[in-house]
Every structure is written in C-alpha cells, then in structure tokens.
Amino acid sequence: MKKPLTGMQLSSSSSVVSELEGMLLKDNHPFCYFMLVAFEAAGLIRFILLLLLWPAVSLLDALGMADIALQLTVFVALAGLRISEVEAVARAVLPKFYMDDVNIEAWRVFSQHEKRVVVTSMPTIMAERFVKEHLMADEVIGNELLVNRFGFATGFIRKDVGTIAERAAKFFRDENPCLGSGKSNTITGSSFLFLCKGQAHPPFTTIKNHPRDRQFIRPLPVIFHDGRLVNRPTPLTALIILLWIPLGIVLALIRIVSGLILPLWALPYITAIFGGKVIVNGKPPPPATHTNGGVLFVCTHRTLLDPVILSFILQRKIPAVTYSISRISEILSPIPTIRLTRIRQVDAEKIKSQLQKDDVVVCPEGTTCREPFLLRFSALFAELTDRIVPVAMNYKVKAGFFHATTARGWKALDPFFFFMNPQPTYEVTFLNQLPTKSTCSAGKSPHDVANYVQRILAATLGFECTNFTRKDKYKLLVGTDGTVSYPA
C-alpha cells in the first residue's frame, strides 16, 4: 500500500489528483446535482421522475453496481435536453450549491499543489465551470455526454474517450502525480489512485506555513447565481418541496390578492396572520411636503419587492424607479413605478420631476444580488438631490424553498415565488439622511457619494462591496461567454 504524503513532502512543483464527490465535496453522491439540472433545465415533471428513481439508484449502489446507477441517473436527468441548457445550469446554478458543500480541509490540501486535477463521476460539463474557476483546478476529468447532431443530450455516456485513469495518465504524461485524494470503493477512485505516488484520506493534514497557504485559504466566492431553489435538493428536501408546492401556491395567491385589494394600514395584520415577517430598524424620515419636496431613498437591491416593502413600512405609496421589470409586474405593482430609459439625461429629469412633489425610491445597483455582496452603485442618484436616505434591505431565505429573483426564468413569476415561501422575511434598516458635507453640494463628486453610500450600506448589512455591475451579472448568468474576473 502506498504511503500518504505529508505536508513536509510537498514542493512547489507537486501535483495532485482529487476526487470531487466525497473529497472536495462533502457529499459522496452527485444525485442532488442531477436533481438541480432536472428542475432548472427540464421542469417539475422531470424533477419528480428523478426523485421516484432514487430508491432504484440506492439499491444499485448497495449491490455494487454504481456505474449502472450513474448511467440510469444521467439518462433520466439529461436525455432530450439541449446541451446548451445543461451548460447554462452548470454555469449559473450549480456553483452556489457546490460551494456550500466544499470540504475546506480537503480544499486546502488540494490548493497547495502546483498542478491540480479533479476527477468526477458527473458529466464534465456539469462540474468544469465551478472546479476551474472557483477551485482553481487545471483539468477536470469526468464522463462525457453523447450529444446528437441537433445539440440534444441522448442521456448516454461516451465510451470512446478512454477511462478516467487513461485520461489522467495522459494529462501527466510520463510523470505520476504526487498525491491522490479519493476513495478506492468509488467509480472514479478505484481507477486513478494507482497512478499516484501517495494517497490522502480524511482527516486531512493541513499544511502549515507553506508559501501558497495564504493565497488559497478559501475558494474564490460565488457572487452571482441563478435558479429558483434555495436548498440543495437531497431526496428528502426534494420530497418536502414537492409536498409544499400546492400549499405554497394557495398561500401565495392569498398574500398577493390581499396586498392588491386591502389598504396599507391593514397589511401588517394580514402579513402576520399568513406567516410573513418584516423587521424594521432605525427611524424613517417624515413624509414629503410641498415646501421641502421629497427625499430619495437609496436601497440595496435584494428582490423585486424592495420598494413595495418600503412602502409597506412607511404606510404610503412611494414611487419606485425601475430598470427592467416585466410589464406584468408593473401592472400588478401596488405602488407607482417610474420606468427609466437608460438615457442619462432623460432619466435624471424624470426622477427630479418626481422628487419635487414626492419621495422616490431607487436601487442604484440596477439589478438584484442574492449573495452578501453589493454591486457597484450608479452615481446618477447623487446628482439629483442632497436629501438622500440610505436604506439597507435584506431578504432572508434560509427557512424558505424558493428564490424570489431569476435572470434566466420568467421574471414575472418572481413575486409569486417570494410569497410561496413559508415565512418570507425582510429586515429593513433606515440610516440617517446624508449630511450636507457628504453630498455633491459640498463639492463631492457623484461617484464619491455613490461609493460612500455603498460602503455604509455594506457595513450595515455585513456585506462586501464589489465593482461588478448589472452587465457583469448577466454576462455570467445568461451571456455569451459567461467570463467574469473574480477577485482573489
């Protein structure tokens, strides 16, 4: 038996091959990731079919026929899907769930090698984006899907590309990798470990004081992600989601209809009855008057409902600046909306005109971000008024099932999914109005004011400021090449 390598034996030119499932990821089985692809790329029916398959997959695994179980899972989850849809889900949805499941100690050992290869039983297309961009691997070796000439996955795995061991040996050429991290009783583990000079198994020896140690303390974060599901759909979680959906639909309809027909003063009582929760911190300013005009509420952007929640708290309908919401959302909106043209001068005049008679709410990020990061603030708001009130808004989904925003799906359904959650919760913090010395009237540039507001809102929420924009988000989630430079 080969001896495991210790941290002292590593060099800057060392190499490692690590299994993804059960090593770099804590979960031994990739079934939940196929569930995600089925839900996001194919829909609810495929999701249900794959869940019904779970007992058969488990039985085949128990009988030592893991390769047959994998082929069955791949066929049911992917057969008939456009390969571009599978790639889109792998780019926009899966990285967040992979990141939540990363084994940090395994990652630290993996990251401290010069040449890094990951092997996986999943199709390469499902793991490659995350593993290369966030785990910093040089190569991903997985199963390759058989795709027909029309661009659809057949559900079968290609047999003409060689085994995982052969492909790993080809990558390293004549030099065997220094370290192999995997389990010998898995599909991938049994095929590549014999190539390696040493083996690493949990618990991993963390390498102290290695020159690469400080650089790779954690994987690069996932800032943008898409998809409707909040939690990784393990078989039990998927079953709970399916059982909740009928009740969630009824609950969402009640909540939405109540918000449209009832007066604002009655909504706090209805919200509490049907499980909603709004936490308010700080003191909001008084309503606008004819003599002093309105204030500009500058909010962080978590969901489409941010301005609605603000009006709910203030008990008056505050007009909201909108960039790209659907026409259906505008029609159903319980508050007035000001649709911008993205022509700077035209938009500035629209907002100024409204501020002369009423308060206005704007989300200068221009799009939502689910993770604890703030996108770069557009500086336009700072040019329009000195009466700026920052508002830190945060939507919590830990106890929920569905995300309330999407980049790839039907955006008109965003409010519906928000209200389908058992206890949709908002926390809203009103900060003090900016002092005059921090506004453009004191000589500050609009960009300085915007950056300052971004920083104080991030500090209030415990978030991190970024320079990413709406364009960066959509480039990654639905764009052509999906390449965004993440910060180290």
From TrEMBL:
Keywords: Acyltransferase, Membrane, Transferase, Transmembrane, Transmembrane helix. The chain crosses the membrane at residues 31-56, 62-81, 236-254. Residues 295-396 form the Phospholipid/glycerol acyltransferase domain. The lineage of its organism: Eukaryota, Viridiplantae, Streptophyta, Embryophyta, Tracheophyta. One of its GO terms (molecular function) is phosphatase activity. It holds the Pfam family HAD_RAM2_N. Belongs to the GPAT/DAPAT family. GO terms for biological process: cutin biosynthetic process. This is Phospholipid/glycerol acyltransferase domain-containing protein. It is found in: Membrane. It is a multi-pass membrane protein. Its main location: membrane. One of its GO terms (cellular component) is membrane. CDD domains: LPLAT.
